[in-house]
Q: What sequence folds into this?
């Protein structure tokens, strides 16, 4: 752990978040905070680069109804745990019907290029297009997800049409070409 770096920081907009998990970017609003500079070993640099790649956005949940109406929640590749605990990947604040930990999961699989909605490990229910979710369900653009008293739309960024790997290949193929 870097000297002087606390695990929980407050962004300029007043949101508290875990800097060990999210670095200098607030997971709620995207604001940046200044973190103390530290010198990293080559192994730490490699781990930081891998973490940056793992945290690339693959889609969003947008709250359409509930205590967080209008808020968007960034999704990353792999499992995104949803709950009312600040340490959840998708932190739903103010909805007392959302369980604290792992109420539901939105997962993006890089290999299949699919996003899936899964029930969580809590007793709370999750609904996809007004149907209870008991097993994994594939998510499509603008699908409705209901958790607690909140309603979300799923907005994909990565899919069968685009992934970060596609963009990396595009960048590599166009290196040296100046965009005008």
A:
């Amino acid at each position: 752990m870097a000297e002087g770096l606390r695990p929980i920081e407050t962004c300029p907009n007043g949101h508290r978040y875990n800097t060990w998990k999210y670095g200098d970017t607030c997971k709620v609003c995207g604001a940046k905070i200044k973190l103390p500079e530290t010198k990293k070993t080559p192994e730490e640099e490699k781990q930081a680069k891998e973490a940056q790649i793992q945290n690339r956005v693959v889609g969003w949940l947008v709250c359409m109804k509930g205590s967080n109406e209008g808020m968007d929640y960034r999704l990353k590749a792999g499992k995104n745990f949803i709950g009312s605990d600040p340490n959840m990947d998708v932190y739903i604040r103010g909805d007392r019907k959302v369980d604290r930990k792992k109420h539901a999961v939105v997962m993006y699989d890089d290999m299949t290029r699919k996003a899936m909605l899964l029930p969580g490990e809590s007793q709370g229910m999750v609904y996809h297009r007004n149907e209870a979710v008991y097993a994994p369900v594939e998510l499509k653009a603008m699908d409705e997800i209901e958790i607690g008293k909140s309603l979300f739309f799923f907005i994909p960024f990565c899919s069968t049409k685009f992934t970060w790997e596609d963009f990396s290949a595009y960048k590599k193929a166009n290196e040296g070409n100046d965009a005008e």
